[in-house]
Design brief:
globular, two-stranded antiparallel ribbon, about 400 residues, single chain
Length: about 400
C-alpha cells in the first residue's frame, strides 16, 4: 500500500471516528453512566456538581453592580459554583458546534412568556429546596440527604401538574409560529461550525492552563469537569425533565433508567468518599427537609415543564442556541438570587424551610445505600412497567 492510500485510509478512519462522536447521538444510558462517574470525580476533586449556585453567583454579582445588594459576592471568574456552570455552557456550546447542531432558534411569544414564568418558578423552587434538579435532588440524594428524596417527590408532583397545565394550554391557547422569516434551525453557521467548535475547546484548554498558572488549579480542574458535563449531556440529550415527565406524557422509561444508573453510581461514590473521611459527612446535605425540599420541588417541577428545561437542561439547551431557554436561564438566576435573599432575611422563613437530615445518622451507611438503591430501582421498574401498560400516562 503506497503512502497516498495509507493517508486515505487514515483520513477515512478519522472521519468515521468524528462522525461517531459528534454526528451520532450517544445512547442515553451511556450519558447516565458517564454523568454518575463525573459526579463522583468532581466531588473527589473539589466539590459536588451543581448548577443553581453558579447562576445565583452571576445574579448576585449583577445585583451588586447595579446597587441592589451591598455585599459583593465572590467573583464569577473564580467562584467554583460559577466555573462549573460556565463549563457546562462552554462544553454544550462547543459540542453543539462540533456536531453542527448550534443555531439561534427563536420561539413564539407565548413560549417566551413561559420561559420567563417557568424560569422564575425554577428560581423560587430551587431557593426553597437548596438547589435545582441537580443540587437539590441528584447531588443531595447522592450526599445521602433526606432532602433529596423529598425533592424527588416534589418534582414528580410538580411535573404531573405542569403536564396537566400544558395539555390545557394546547386546547385553549394555541401558539403561533415565530415571525421574522427564520427557518426551522434559525440562524445557523453550518459550514464553519466545526472549526469554531474546535477553537472553543482549544480556548477551554488554554483557560484551564491559565487558571493553573495563576495558582487556581482547583478552579481550572472544575472548569474542565463542567465542560465534560456539557459535552456528555449535549451528545446524549440527557434530560431530567424527561425523567419526571415522560412516564406521565409518553410512557417512555429510557430516561428514568438512565437517571437510575447515574444516581446509583453517584450514591456509591459519595458514600465511599464520606465513609472513608475523604469528604465531610454533611457536605451538600441540604438544610431543607422537609418543607423546602418538597414544596420547592413541586414549584420547580411545574416551572421546568413550563420552560421546557430543568437547571442543567436549560443551560445546555441555551448553549445550543434556544432563545426561550436563554430567557429561562436569566429569569432562573435572578429569581433564585432574589428569593434566596428573602429567605436569608427572615428567621421565620428559614425555620419553615427545614433542617439538615443526614440519613446515615439514623440507620448507618450500609442500610442508607441499600434503601436508596432499592428506591431508584423500584422507580425504574415502575417506569418500565408503565411502558408496557400505559397505566400512568395522562390523557389529554
Amino acid at each position: 500500500m503506497n503512502e497516498n492510500n495509507e493517508a486515505s485510509v487514515m483520513g477515512s478512519i478519522l472521519k468515521r471516528a468524528y462522525s461517531t462522536v459528534f454526528f451520532e447521538n450517544w445512547p442515553v444510558w451511556v450519558g447516565g453512566v458517564l454523568i454518575g462517574i463525573m459526579s463522583v470525580l468532581t466531588f473527589a476533586w473539589a466539590r459536588p456538581w451543581g448548577v443553581v449556585g453558579g447562576l445565583r453567583n452571576w445574579a448576585d454579582w449583577f445585583f451588586n453592580q447595579i446597587g441592589v445588594y451591598s455585599h459583593a459576592p465572590v467573583s464569577p471568574l473564580i467562584s467554583t459554583n460559577s466555573i462549573l456552570v460556565l463549563g457546562l455552557l462552554w462544553g454544550a456550546f462547543g459540542s453543539a458546534l462540533m456536531s453542527k447542531q448550534f443555531a439561534l432558534r427563536m420561539a413564539p411569544g407565548l413560549e417566551l412568556v413561559k420561559g420567563v414564568v417557568g424560569g422564575s418558578l425554577m428560581g423560587i423552587g430551587s431557593a426553597m429546596a437548596g438547589g435545582c434538579n441537580v443540587g437539590g435532588f441528584y447531588i443531595a440524594t447522592s450526599a445521602l440527604s433526606f432532602g433529596g428524596l423529598a425533592m424527588m417527590a416534589g418534582l414528580i408532583m410538580g411535573a404531573y401538574l405542569g403536564l396537566r397545565y400544558l395539555y390545557w394550554e394546547m386546547m385553549h391557547l394555541p401558539s403561533n409560529p415565530p415571525k421574522g422569516g427564520i427557518g426551522k434551525r434559525g440562524i445557523s453557521l453550518v459550514g464553519i461550525e466545526p472549526y469554531i467548535g474546535a477553537l472553543v475547546f482549544i480556548g477551554a484548554i488554554l483557560a484551564a492552563w491559565f487558571y493553573a498558572r495563576e495558582a487556581y488549579a482547583r478552579v481550572g480542574g472544575l472548569l474542565l469537569c463542567g465542560i465534560a458535563f456539557g459535552i456528555i449531556i449535549q451528545r446524549t440529550r440527557f434530560c431530567f425533565v424527561r425523567c419526571f415527565r415522560d412516564p406521565f406524557m409518553t410512557g417512555e422509561g429510557d430516561m428514568v433508567r438512565a437517571v437510575t444508573y447515574s444516581i446509583i453510581i453517584s450514591i456509591l461514590g459519595f458514600a465511599a468518599l464520606k465513609w472513608t473521611g475523604l469528604r465531610g459527612e454533611e457536605v451538600y446535605v441540604t438544610q431543607t427537609f422537609w418543607f423546602g425540599s418538597l414544596v420547592g420541588g413541586i414549584i420547580f417541577g411545574f416551572g421546568m415543564l413550563m420552560s421546557g428545561g430543568c437547571g442543567s437542561g436549560s443551560v445546555w439547551r441555551a448553549g445550543e442556541g434556544h432563545v426561550k431557554l436563554m430567557v429561562a436561564v436569566v429569569c432562573f438566576a435572578l429569581g433564585n438570587s432574589l428569593f434566596k435573599a428573602l429567605i436569608k432575611s427572615s428567621e421565620g422563613l428559614k425555620a419553615l424551610i427545614g433542617n439538615r437530615v443526614f440519613i446515615p445518622d439514623f440507620i448507618g451507611y450500609k442500610w442508607t445505600v441499600i434503601i436508596l438503591i432499592v428506591i431508584f430501582l423500584v422507580y425504574s421498574l415502575i417506569a418500565t412497567w408503565n411502558e408496557e401498560t400505559d397505566k400512568l400516562t395522562v390523557e389529554m
